[in-house]
Design goal:
Number of helices of chain B: 9
Strand content of chain A: 15-25%
Radius of gyration of chain A: 40 Å
Number of helices of chain A: 21
Structural class of chain B: alpha+beta
Structural class of chain A: alpha/beta
Largest sheet of chain B: 8 strands, antiparallel
Distance between the termini of chain A: 103 Å
Number of domains of chain B: 2
Helix content of chain A: 40-55%
Oligomer: heterodimer
Chain lengths: 585, 400
C-alpha cells in the first residue's frame, strides 16, 4: 500500500470525490472527502452559517462558526479535540475538515485543497445544471399548463386521467369527471371586455381549486371549459361536488372591479372499466350539454342515452347536409288574417324538411342540430330566398294589398355581418317590396346578446327592414330597446292567447302589450288563435291581426296559393306562381 | 420506550449481562423454546434488548410473534441470515437469540424503510432513536440493514448523519441463506424489506468494537477508470470482469456460469484504498454481457482498487484480531458478552471442515462469555473517520 505514489493517491482521491453521479449530491461529496482522509467532520462554513455538514449535529455547530475568522488548527468538540484542515471555497465559504487525534500532514492538506477545488467545480456544475433543470421544468410546466390560470391543460388532464384509470385497474366507482362550462361566458367578454373575461376565468379557476379536495385535479380544457377529476367514493359525492361548484361560481365574482354574477353548468361522468380518458371527458361534456338544456346553473350525470342522442344528432347532421343539397328544405306558410274581415293580410314562413323516408319534419326535429353545427346559416339563407320569391310572385298578381311576409331568422344569422347584403340581394332579385318584409326574431335573442343585436339592428335600420318580435311578453325586453329598434310587429305569444276569455290575468297582459304597441306605433299579431271566442276577445282588446289553426295551419306553397286564390286575392286573369330565381353572375 | 421489564422471574446480580440462546430445531415453537430456555437458564431480569437472527427457512413472522410473546415489552429487533453464530457453534438454518440487560444500560430502537434510492434516509430515520436516548458514558448504534438493497455505504452515511462523531456504528446486513433474492428485517413483530432497523445502546461501561479482515492485495493497485454505484465497469481502462478473471486465472465455468462466478468471487473480493487501510468490497456477481463486476457497496470511480486474496489462515487471524480489538476497547473492564457480525464469504473460505476453528479462535480470545451473531451480507463498523462499511470482515461488539 505504501508503494503507491503520493501523486497517484492524490489524483485518485480527487477523482473519486468528483465522481458523484448526481451533481446535487453535495452531501455525498462531503462524505467522500471525509472518507479520503479518514476525517470525522466535514463542513462547508460561511458567513451565513454552516452549510452541508457531517459528523456534528446542528446543535453543536456553534464551535465551528465561532472559529471561522481565526481558523485554528484544532477545535474542541464533545467527542474530543478535532484537528482542523481549512481550504478556501468560492463566495467566501470554507471547507472545514476535522479529524480526531491525528493532525493533517502536508500531503493531506494538499489533498483537501484539491478536493475543495473539486467541490467548487461541482458547485459550479450544480448551479449550471440547476438553472438548466429549472428552465426545463418551466418548459415542461408550460407545455402542460394553461398559461392564464396556471391549471393543467388538456394534455395534462388527459395524462392524469389515463394514469388514474390505469391505477384503478378496472375497479368501479373510483373516478368521476366533472365538466364545467360557464353559462353565457361570451356575454362577459362582450359586455365587460376580454381583459375582464380573462380575469373572470382566473377567479373561476381559483374557486374550483378551493372547492376540491387534495388529490383531485382541476384543469382548463379551453375557453370557459373546466374539468375536475375526483375520487368519488359514491356517485352522490360527485353530485354534491357539482352542486357545490355551481353554488360557489354562482356567488358574484369580482374581476377588474366588475361585479359579475354568473352561473355554471356541470356534466358528470363516472369511470367504468371500458372508459378511456377521452371517452370519460366526452361523456362529461355530453352530460354538460344536458345540464344546459335543463336550464342554467344545473348539473346532469351522463347516461348511455346521451351518447345515443349525440349519435343521432351526428346522423341528422349528415342527413341535413345532404337535404340542403337535394332541396329538401322547403317553406310552408301560415296565414295572418285581419280579425275584422277574416282576409289574409300576410304569411309567416316556416321551414320544413321534406324527408324522403320520414316525411315532413317540423323545425324542432332539425333546427337544434342546425344551430349546433352552423348549418342554420345555410337554412336561413335558403328559406329567406324561397319565401321572398314566393310572396313577391303572389304580390305581383294581387288585386288586394300586398301580403306581408314574416321570416324567422336564427340568432347566428341575425348578428352575422352578411345579413344586410343577403337581404338586399334577395329583395332585389325577388322584387319584394321592402315594406312587406319582417324579420322575425325572438324576444330572448334581443336580450341575450344585446350588444351584437344592437349592431345588427343598426345595420338593418339603414336598409329599412322592420322586425317582428316573436313570443312578445315572455322575455324581459326593455321598452327602451323596443323604441330604439325598428320594430314593426309584436307577436303575442300563444301562451297568452290560449287563456283568453277564461283567464283574466292573460287578458290584462294582452291588453298591456297591445297598449304598449299602439303607443309605439307597432302592429300586434296574436299567435295561436284557435277559437272564434279568442278572436272576439282579441278584437275587443284592439288586436287587429291573428294567426292560428282557426285561420289555417302552415301549408306548402301550392296549398297556400290555393287558399289565397279562394279568397280572391289574385287578379282573375292571373296565373300566379313563385318567381324563379334570377341568375346572378 | 418500555422500562427494563424482566421477561423471566429470575433477578440478576446487578451490572450488565448478555445471554445467548440458539437452536436448529425445525419447528418455530420448538426453536424459540429451546433458545429461550438457554437465555433464561442464567436469569434474564431487567432485559433491555433482544436480537433475533434466524434463517429464512423459518416462518419469520411466526418466530417474531413467538419471541415477542415470551419477552413482553422488551424491544425485539432482528433479521434473516445466511447462518448463525452462538452457543460456541456455527449454524445454518437455525436461530440465535441475543439478549442484553441489567443495570447501567439503556436501549432505544428505531426503523426506517426505503428502496435503493432512499437508503440514506431510511438509515437516518432508524438512527433517530439516538435522539430518544438519555446517553450514558458510552453509546453505540447497532444497525441491521437489507444488504440486497442498493449501496450499503448509504446506510453508514445516513446513520452517521444522526450519530455523528460521538457515536460509533456497528452492524450487519441481513442474509437469505445465500439465495440472494431478498432479506427481511425484524422490528418487533413486523417483518420488513428494504429497511434498516437500529438499536441505540448506551451504557455506563465501555463498549468495545473490533474489525478485521486480513485479506491481502494481489499485485499492484489499479485505477477504477469506470464505475457507477455498485457496478465496476473498468479497471485501468480494461473491462473490469476481464481484468478480474485474468488476474485470478479463473477456470472456464467461472467465466460463463453466474453461479460458478459467485462462488469463486466469494473468496476473491476487491479492496478499495483508504488512508491507512484497505476496505473490502464483496463481488456479488458479474455482468457477462457488459463485462462488469457487481459489488455490494460502491467502488468510487477514480479511486484505487486492489484484487484481494485470502485463505483460511488469514480468516482465522482476522477472527482473533477483531475479537481482541473489541476486548481491548473495553479499557480493562471485564466483558459480559459479545455481538458478532461475520461475513458469509469468510465462512465459505473456511468451509465446513474448518468452521469450528473460527469458533475456537473466538473462544480463545473471549473465553466462555456469551457471544452470538450471524453471517452477513456486509458489515458495519465506524469507529474513526466517517466511513465504515465493510465486506468479508468480522465486526465484533464487546459489552462490559
Amino acid at each position: 500500500m505504501n508503494q503507491v505514489p503520493w501523486s497517484l493517491h492524490l489524483l485518485a482521491e480527487v477523482l473519486s470525490a468528483f465522481s458523484v453521479e448526481d451533481p446535487e449530491a453535495l452531501r455525498t461529496m462531503i462524505n467522500r472527502v471525509a472518507e479520503a482522509v479518514d476525517a470525522e467532520v466535514v463542513a462547508i462554513v460561511g458567513v451565513h452559517g454552516v452549510g452541508p455538514c457531517i459528523g456534528v449535529s446542528p446543535q453543536d455547530h456553534a464551535p465551528l462558526l465561532a472559529c471561522i475568522d481565526q481558523r485554528p488548527e484544532s477545535i474542541t468538540v464533545r467527542a474530543g479535540q478535532l484537528q482542523i484542515c481549512w481550504a478556501p471555497l468560492d463566495d467566501g465559504e470554507t471547507l472545514l475538515v476535522g479529524r480526531l487525534a491525528e493532525t493533517f500532514d502536508l500531503e493531506e492538506r494538499a489533498l483537501v485543497r484539491a478536493m475543495a477545488r473539486s467541490i467548487e467545480l461541482s458547485q459550479q456544475i450544480m448551479k449550471a445544471v440547476s438553472s438548466e433543470r429549472m428552465a426545463r421544468e418551466v418548459a415542461v410546466h408550460q407545455a402542460i399548463h394553461d398559461p392564464m390560470t396556471g391549471l393543467p391543460n388538456r394534455t395534462q388532464v388527459l395524462e392524469h386521467l389515463s394514469r388514474r384509470l390505469a391505477e384503478e385497474n378496472g375497479e368501479l366507482g373510483q373516478t368521476a369527471v366533472l365538466f364545467i362550462d360557464i353559462d353565457r361566458f361570451k356575454q362577459i367578454n362582450d359586455v365587460h371586455g376580454h381583459a375582464v373575461g380573462d380575469q373572470f376565468l382566473i377567479e373561476v379557476s381559483s374557486v374550483l381549486r378551493k372547492v376540491v379536495r387534495t388529490g383531485d385535479l382541476v384543469g382548463r380544457l379551453s375557453g370557459d371549459e373546466f374539468v375536475v377529476i375526483v375520487a368519488a367514493g359514491e356517485p352522490a359525492d360527485a353530485l354534491a361536488l357539482a352542486a357545490r361548484i355551481i353554488e360557489r361560481i354562482g356567488h358574484p365574482l369580482i374581476a377588474n372591479a366588475a361585479n359579475i354574477l354568473h352561473s355554471a353548468s356541470v356534466g358528470i361522468s363516472f369511470a367504468t372499466p371500458e372508459d378511456t380518458a377521452e371517452t370519460l371527458i366526452e361523456n362529461a361534456d355530453m352530460a354538460m350539454y344536458r345540464a344546459m338544456e335543463l336550464g342554467r346553473g344545473c348539473y346532469a350525470a351522463y347516461d348511455e342515452s346521451m351518447r345515443q342522442l349525440v349519435q343521432k344528432r351526428a346522423t341528422t347532421e349528415v342527413e341535413l347536409r345532404r337535404a340542403l343539397k337535394a332541396g329538401e328544405i322547403q317553406c310552408h306558410f301560415q296565414p295572418i288574417v285581419c280579425i275584422a274581415d277574416g282576409r289574409i293580410r300576410g304569411v309567416e314562413a316556416l321551414a320544413r324538411w321534406a324527408h324522403p323516408i320520414q316525411g315532413v319534419l317540423s323545425p324542432g326535429e332539425f333546427i337544434p342540430v342546425a344551430e349546433e353545427t352552423g348549418l342554420i346559416l345555410e337554412i336561413d339563407a335558403v328559406v329567406l330566398r324561397q319565401v321572398c320569391m314566393a310572396v313577391a310572385g303572389w304580390n305581383q298578381f294581387s288585386q288586394d294589398l300586398p301580403l306581408s311576409l314574416s321570416v324567422n331568422v336564427s340568432a347566428r344569422t341575425f348578428v352575422g355581418a352578411d345579413l344586410v347584403a343577403q337581404v338586399s340581394s334577395i329583395l332585389q332579385d325577388s322584387g319584394l317590396g321592402l315594406e312587406s318584409l319582417y324579420l322575425e326574431i325572438t324576444e330572448t335573442m334581443l336580450v341575450e346578446d344585446i350588444e351584437a343585436t344592437t349592431e345588427a339592428v343598426d345595420r338593418l335600420k339603414d336598409l329599412g327592414v322592420k322586425l317582428a318580435i316573436d313570443d312578445f311578453g315572455t322575455g324581459y325586453s326593455s321598452l327602451l330597446y323596443l323604441k330604439r329598434f325598428p320594430v314593426g310587429i309584436h307577436k303575442i305569444d300563444r301562451s297568452f292567447t290560449v287563456g283568453l276569455g277564461a283567464d283574466r290575468e292573460n287578458e290584462v297582459i294582452v291588453d298591456a302589450v297591445i297598449g304598449i304597441a299602439r303607443s309605439l306605433g307597432i302592429e300586434v299579431i296574436a299567435e295561436g288563435v284557435e277559437t272564434e271566442h279568442q278572436a272576439a276577445v282579441l278584437a275587443g282588446l284592439g288586436c287587429s291581426y291573428a294567426q292560428g289553426y282557426l285561420y289555417g295551419r302552415p301549408q306548402d306553397i301550392e296549398a297556400t296559393q290555393t287558399l289565397l286564390a279562394g279568397q280572391g286575392f289574385f287578379l282573375s286573369s292571373a296565373d300566379p306562381r313563385p318567381l324563379q330565381e334570377k341568375s346572378r353572375g | 420506550m418500555p422500562d427494563s421489564l424482566p421477561f423471566v422471574a429470575n433477578s440478576t446480580e446487578g451490572g450488565r449481562w448478555v445471554r445467548v440462546g440458539t437452536s436448529t430445531a425445525t419447528s418455530e415453537p420448538a426453536a424459540v423454546e429451546e433458545a429461550m430456555e438457554q437465555i433464561q437458564a442464567h436469569g434474564a431480569g431487567g432485559a433491555k434488548l433482544v436480537l433475533l437472527f434466524a434463517s429464512p427457512a423459518y416462518d419469520l413472522p411466526q418466530l417474531a410473534r413467538l419471541v415477542s410473546e415470551r419477552i413482553g415489552a422488551v424491544p425485539l429487533l432482528g433479521c434473516s441470515t445466511s447462518g448463525e453464530l452462538g452457543g460456541q457453534r456455527s449454524m445454518s438454518k437455525g436461530l440465535t437469540l441475543w439478549a442484553m440487560g441489567g443495570e447501567g444500560v439503556t436501549v432505544a430502537t428505531g426503523m426506517g424503510q426505503g428502496g435503493a434510492m432512499s437508503l440514506r434516509q431510511a438509515a437516518t430515520d432508524a438512527a433517530q432513536c439516538l435522539d430518544r436516548l438519555e446517553r450514558r458514558a458510552h453509546t453505540v448504534l447497532v444497525l441491521l440493514a437489507d444488504g440486497l438493497c442498493g449501496d450499503q455505504m448509504e446506510v453508514v452515511r445516513g446513520a452517521y448523519d444522526v450519530a455523528g462523531v460521538d457515536v460509533p456504528l456497528v452492524g450487519g446486513c441481513a442474509g437469505d441463506d445465500q439465495a440472494m433474492q431478498f432479506t427481511q428485517q425484524i422490528f418487533g413483530t413486523t417483518l420488513l424489506r428494504d429497511a434498516v432497523v437500529a438499536a441505540a445502546i448506551t451504557s455506563d461501561a465501555p463498549l468495545g468494537i473490533g474489525v478485521s479482515h486480513c485479506w491481502e492485495p494481489l499485485g499492484q493497485p489499479m485505477l477504477v477508470t469506470g464505475s457507477s454505484g455498485t457496478r465496476v465497469v473498468s479497471l485501468n481502462d480494461r473491462p473490469a470482469l476481464d481484468v478480474y478473471l485474468d488476474a485470478f486465472d479463473a477456470p472456464a465455468d467461472v467465466r460463463t456460469e453466474p453461479e460458478a462466478f459467485s462462488a469463486f468471487a466469494a473468496t476473491r473480493p476487491l479492496g478499495i484504498r483508504r488512508r491507512d487501510r484497505i476496505e473490502i468490497r464483496y463481488v456479488s456477481s458479474a455482468d457477462f454481457e457488459l463485462r462488469s463486476l457487481i459489488t455490494i457497496a460502491e467502488v468510487p470511480q477514480g479511486g484505487l482498487a486492489f484484487l484481494m486474496q485470502g485463505d483460511s489462515r488469514s480468516v482465522l487471524d482476522a477472527t482473533a484480531d477483531a475479537c481482541s480489538m473489541a476486548i481491548h476497547g473495553l479499557q480493562g473492564e471485564q466483558p459480559v458478552g459479545m455481538l458478532l457480525f461475520d461475513c458469509v464469504a469468510r465462512r465459505t473460505v473456511l468451509s465446513h471442515a474448518n468452521i469450528d476453528n473460527e469458533i475456537d479462535h473466538i473462544t480463545a480470545v473471549i473465553g466462555d462469555i456469551p457471544a452470538g451473531g450471524f453471517y452477513t451480507y456486509g458489515e458495519i463498523a465506524r469507529t474513526k473517520g466517517a466511513g465504515g462499511f465493510h465486506n468479508q470482515t468480522l465486526v465484533a461488539l464487546a459489552i462490559a
